[in-house]
Design brief:
Layout: H1 2-14, E1 22-27, H2 35-48, E2 56-61, H3 68-80, H4 86-90, E3 94-97, H5 102-114, H6 121-127, H7 136-168, H8 172-328, H9 332-353
Length: about 350
């Protein structure tokens, strides 16, 4: 029974199924408190654990199979029995009646589903590395088996002694009965030993299966961890590549900006040189125009000076001629001829200057 219960709980836990609670069923028409009933209830507490008692419910069934008054009397008797349900109620276990209806079933289940999930103690011990026979429930079963074996051995020894005593008394019928009883006890003891060995083998198989499962989980966790590491490294590489690309793009933009700036500077220098050359040519042109103007002015001034000198000479010659005529009297003809010659020479000079 313990093996089946623990196997179901392990399967649920391995599938990551949340356990909202555990129900313990008891027929209300059975008010007897037998040794097996007490052992089952004690085993239930060891499997669940004291801390999870509030997530458990004792449920009575078969209310339709018993008179209500009698069933209610059984209910009170079970609840008040200090060797049966009362310690469970004191530990926080709930209670409910299943009245063979869907509504009563929902009233039992819904409160459990609204709370937190639980992990049975046997699962906690199992996850801690203990095998089933090493858990508290398993040790209780082992103790019960050992006690049963001791009692069986005592019964076998007593049956053997009683059979021997009956043979000495020549009570062969009693001897045969005790011998038969001894063989039955030995058969039962052998069966218990076989079951215990079977349980040990199953424990060992479960241990190997658990270790294999842990190894699979470890490898799976290692693969997941390796995937995460590779994913992280890939993201880092991608981030580094993206950062390097951004750096290259930034360097390219900076280089382009420097080239554009250099082009602008070159264009500015060329514009400056062109402006300077134009200014120089304009200055030289102005200087040339000024020089030509000065030369023209000088020429004109020289021309005006020559004209003045000419007229002065003409006027002087005329005066001289008149004077010569007045003074010399008879020598007028030669002087006039000399004045006329001087006048011609002066006119010829003006033409040459023009």
């Amino acid at each position: 029974m313990l093996r089946r219960i623990s196997s179901v709980l392990k399967s649920l836990h391995a599938d990551k199924t949340d356990i909202a609670g555990i129900l313990y069923f008891h027929p209300i028409n059975d008010a007897r408190v037998t040794g097996s009933s007490k052992k089952n209830l004690d085993m239930f507490g060891k499997v669940v654990g004291v801390n999870n008692m509030k997530r458990c419910v004792l449920v009575t069934t078969k209310w339709s199979c018993e008179q209500y008054a009698k069933a209610k009397s059984h209910e009170a008797e079970l609840a008040s029995n200090p060797d049966f349900w009362k310690p469970m109620f004191d530990a926080g276990v709930g209670y409910a009646r299943y009245e063979d209806t869907r509504l009563s079933a929902m009233k039992i289940i819904e409160p459990l589903c609204e709370g937190d999930s639980m992990v049975p103690k046997v699962i906690v011990e199992w996850e801690g590395g203990k095998r089933l026979h090493e858990t508290e429930a398993g040790r209780a079963v082992e103790d019960d088996v050992e006690q049963a074996q001791k009692l069986a051995q005592q019964d076998i020894q007593e049956a053997h002694e009683e059979a021997a005593e009956a043979i000495r008394r020549k009570d062969f019928e009693t001897a045969r009965a005790r011998e038969k009883e001894r063989k039955e006890l030995e058969s039962r003891l052998a069966k218990m030993e076989q079951e215990r060995e079977t349980l040990r083998i199953e424990y060992e198989q479960q241990r190997k299966q658990q270790e294999a499962q842990w190894e699979v989980q470890r490898k799976e966790a290692e693969r997941e961890r390796q995937k995460e590491i590779e994913l992280h490294q890939r993201k880092q590489r991608e981030e580094a590549a993206r950062w390097e690309k951004q750096q290259h793009e930034a360097a390219a933009r900076w280089e382009k900006a420097q080239q554009e700036l250099e082009k602008q500077r070159e264009a500015d220098r060329e514009a400056y040189e062109a402006h300077r050359e134009r200014a120089k040519r304009e200055y030289e042109a102005q200087e040339e125009r000024a020089r030509l103007e000065r030369a023209e002015n000088q020429r004109r001034d020289a021309l005006r000076g020559n004209r003045k000198s000419h007229w002065v000479r003409r006027i002087g010659l005329g005066v001289l001629g008149t004077a010569a005529v007045v003074v010399t009297g008879g020598l007028a003809a030669p002087i006039v001829a000399g004045v006329a010659t001087a006048h011609e020479v002066s006119c010829q000079e003006e033409k040459e200057q023009e």
